[in-house]
Amino acid sequence: MDHLPSSNSQYKDQDYWDDRYRHEETFEWFGAFSHFEHLLKEEIQRDESILILGCGNSSLSYDMFMSGYRSITNIDFSAICIEKMATKYASCSGMEWKVMDAKALEFENESFNVVLEKGTIDAMMVDEKDPWNVSQETTEIIDQVLKEVSRILRKGGRFISITFAQPHFRKQLYARRDYRWSITHQIYESGFHYNFYTMTKGENLSSEDQELEDKRSQRAEPESVVYLQITENENYLNEIEF
Ligand SMILES: C[S@@+](CC[C@H](N)C(=O)[O-])C[C@H]1O[C@@H](n2cnc3c(N)ncnc32)[C@H](O)[C@@H]1O
Questions:
Q1: Calpha distance 131→66 (Å, rounded)
Q2: Is the Cβ atom of 163 under 6 angstroms away from ligand 1?
Q3: Domain encompassing residue 47
Q4: What atom in ligand 1 is closest to the CA of residue 145?
Q5: Which atom of ligand 1 lies closest to the CA of 102?
Q6: Residues 52-107: pLDDT tens digits?
Q7: What CATH number does the domain containing 88 carry?
Q8: What does 38-90 look like in DSSP terms, one character per residue?
Q9: Per-residue pLDDT tens over the stretch 191-222
Q10: Residue 118 CB–ligand 1 contact under 6 Å
């Protein structure tokens, strides 16, 4: 696998992804569409407008298109990726490809029904050593992305996040009243259990998630540590120490 970075920290660098996408044609993080299609179909109607954040060279957009979703905008900060994907899927009318940073989305307020990310937020967190105590710098980066996602979602719109991160870690970032959404969590299987979060804009956080936000802002210490199971060949989680 000649696309593996020399250090996992590179997974957050645009240069690394540009270089990788120059050579690599396709790679699917956290399993193919067929593994979580049943969950997506519950959350997204076929005529809704969808934005995919950090699309990479995954076939997810195309698989969704073939499944009947027609309004899909894809962004990635790698221009090489977007150029190759736009060429590859030029015949799919209704699919758009744009070079853009997920921290500064060039879309109007309330312009999408759905924003979907798979592994993109994870790639922004690769320098973290302790998932219970995400650094201030990374917390601010993720907050920039989530504020942008909340801004461009319509009322009732959903932010779907597909990740290896379990709720006790990821909800620390997603549970904020500022984002004006509720959170639900499901799991799907693709050789490993992955996490499928749905944030619905316009709904309130559950009392449990509000409590989590309150505790986090008071910097409460965790009572126990739950270890993550790593089974994939390429997985930057290997660098995270507990
Ligand atoms: C782990 S890959 C996931 C790719 C794809 N979503 C998938 O499921 O296979 C992370 C992707 O996020 C993109 N990315 C990372 N940070 C980004 C940012 N700030 N803005 C836009 N794209 C970003 C990378 O270029 C890369 O394509």
A1: 37
A2: no
A3: 8-239
A4: 19
A5: 20
A6: 999 999 999 999 999 999 999 999 999 999 999 999 999 999 999 999 999 999 99
A7: 3.40.50.150
A8: HHHHHH--TTSEEEEES-TT-SHHHHHHHTT--EEEEEES-HHHHHHHHHHTT
A9: 899 999 999 999 999 999 999 999 988 864 44
A10: yes
What is the strand order of the sheet 181-189 is part of? Answer: 95-99, 71-76, 49-53, 112-118, 153-163, 193-201, 181-189
Q: Are 193 and 187 in contact (CB under 8 A)?
A: yes
How big is the chain, counted in residues?
Answer: 242
DSSP state, 228? P
At 75, list the tokens.
């962004």
Asked if residues 216 and 224 have their Cβ atoms less than 8 Å apart, the reply is: no
Composition of the chain by helix, strand, coil, percent to 5:
35, 20, 40
Share of the chain above pLDDT 90, in %: 78
Domain count, the chain: 1
**Residue 55 CB less than 6 A away from ligand 1:** yes
Mutational pocket test of ligand 1: of 17, 29, 61, 120, the residue with most ligand atoms within 8 Å of the beta carbon: 120
Residue 2 lies in a domain: no
Q: Where are the alpha helices (DSSP H) in the chain?
A: 14-23, 33-43, 60-66, 79-88, 120-123, 136-152, 167-174, 207-217
Q: For residue 180, which amino acid is it? A: R
Q: For ligand 1, say whether the CB of 148 is within 6 Å of any of its atoms.
A: no
* 29 is a domain residue: yes
226 is a domain residue: yes
Is 175 a member of any domain?
A: yes
